[in-house]
Amino acid sequence: MRRITLIVTAVVVVLFIISWIIKTNTVPEDGTFRPFIQGFLVTFAAFLTLAIMSFLYRDNPFYKFAEHLYVGVSAAYAMSLGFWTTLVGNLFPRISQNLSDWFGVPFLHYEWHFVIPPILGIILLMRLSPKGGWISRWALAFIVGTTAGLNLPRFLRSDFIEQISSTFLPLLVQWQGVGPFFSNFSLAASGQFIAILTNITIFLGVLCGLIYFFFSKEHKGVFGTASRFGIWVLMVTFGASFGYTVMGRISLLVGRLTFLLKDWLGIIS
Amino acid sequence: MTNIGVYISLLLIFGGLLAILIYSLKGRDVDRRIIFLFVLFSVASAIIFHIEFEESATPIVKKVFEFVENLPPESKILISFDFDPAMKPEVHPMANAFVRHALVKGHKLYLMGLWPQGQALMTETIEYVLKPEFPNAVYGEDYVMLGYKAGNEGVLNVIITDFRKMYSTDAHGTSLDSIPLFDDVKSAKDMDLIFPVGGGKPGPKEWILFVGDPGNVPIAPGLAAVVAPLIYPYYPRQAIGLLGGVKGAAEYESELKKNYKEFENVETPALQMMGPQTMAHIVIMAFIVIGNIGFFRARRRKWQEGN
Amino acid sequence: MKRTIPVIIVSVVGTVLVLSVFFPPVQTMGEDFSLFFDIIAVFAFFLGGGNLVRIHLVKIYRKRPDWGFSVVTLVGFFVTLLVGLGKLSVTGVTASVTAPDSFLQTIFVNIITPLSSTMYALLAFYVASASYRAFRAKNREATILLIAAFIILLGRTPLGMKLTGWIPEWLSILQIPNLAVWIMNAPNLAGQRAILIGVGLGVVAMSLRLILGMDRTYLGSDND
Amino acid sequence: MIFGKSLYCSFIIIACFFTVATAQNEAVATVDSVGQILPQPPGNIIVADHKYDNGGIIDIAWDRSPDDPLGIDGYNIYRACGDGDFEIVAFVLPGGMESYSFIDDKVERGESYRYKISVISSGGESFSESSVSVRGDWEFFDLDKLNILILGIIVCGSVIGFIFTARAGRKLFIRKISGLEALEEAVGRATEMGRPILFIPGILDMDDVQTLAAITILARVSRIVADYDSKIEMPVSRSLVMTTARETIKNSYLAAGRPDAYYDDMVHYVTDEQFGYVAAVNGIMVRDKPATCLYLGAFFAESLILAETGNYIGAIQIAGTARPGQLPFFVAACDYTLIGEELFAASAYLSGDPKQLGSLKGQDVGKFVAMAAMIIGTLAVTVVSAWQFKFFGWLSDLMYSMFSTN
Question: What is the value of pTM for the model shown?
Answer without folding.
Answer: 0.88
